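Incident review: delayed structure delivery

Summary: a single-chain prediction request sat in the queue longer than the usual turnaround. Root cause was a stuck worker, restarted by the on-call engineer. No data loss occurred. The affected request and its eventual output are reproduced below so the record is complete for anyone auditing the incident later.

Affected input:
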Amino acid sequence: MERSGKPGVMGTAPQDRGPWLGPQWAPLASFYGVWILWRRALYDRGVLGAHDPGAFTVSVGGLEAGGSGKTPVAHLLTRVLAGAGKRVGLVTRGYGRQRRGLVVRETGAAALPAEIGDEAAMLVAAGLDIPVAACGRRVLAARALVRLGCDVLVVDDGFAHRALARHLDVVVLCGERPLGSGHLLPWGSLREPASSLARAHVIWLHFRSGVAGEPPAWLAQVAPKAQVVVSASRPLPTRDARGGVVSLRGVPVVVAAGIARPHELFVAVAAAGARVVATRAWRDHALYTAAHVRELSSLAARHRAAAVVVTPKDAVKLAALWQGPPLWVQDRAVQPVRGHEALAARLGVSWSQQ
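Output delivered after worker restart:
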């Protein structure tokens, strides 16, 4: 099997091993930690204020810089709220987009990754036609959605953006490694220290391996008032470009991904019975061009692959450019195990409406 991309297991990019740079960056991580604590104190003491957008706001974020599962959880909660009849809107920074400033995507409009980001476009492509506002300044995005009539806002990756007031702060942690590398950026993967969990209302432990475990004992000490939700990752059927289910068993495929942990996709496709003949990994939120398509098509032809398998986040960006063998999509779902019904009650909805 050919391993393409930067050196690593099965051709994975550095992001698959974590975005951190190593202990040589410890001094800078220390300065970053001091800045984080200083900023936190300014908000805690009211020196810096939070702006109320005028709607019930649920922030879904994390401590780590990517790969914990916060966006899938944000999308799941968005579906639950929309299924309950709420006029819900999604606030996002719009990672991977090309257009700058505030972009508002109204119901029924095209969901272009270049305008609202690949993850928001992926949500709309999956059938959830809701308003989306993308902006680095989350407050502006939230207010734009309220003007459209949204009465509930879900903020993707909003934990650190305290300038936007929220009624519920959900923090998603990787169940297998809740604190990642245990070090702050740029030494480690943490945006904030574990002590920041004290301000979370809900701690959502997502087990990416698919086997749900128990919350770590230290969690009750760091965030004693937080409600805990536990979920596990569940593979979904592989689908073709038209949404039809296809079987991977025995099929020679090229697997490609521009996500934080591409190795997980490679392993999932192999576990589904595919014969993985080559892999390719790019950085998270990669901006695809015709050159990427030519590379994948050439790779597939060289190895006589029957299809190229990607994630939904990659598919929304590749679909318009694609010329080559069939493009198949492999996705995973967030399967709540416990604590989710209590969270739904807190939101005033029933989880069965999801």
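Verification: Residues 237-330 form one domain.
Action items: add queue-age alerting; document worker restart procedure.
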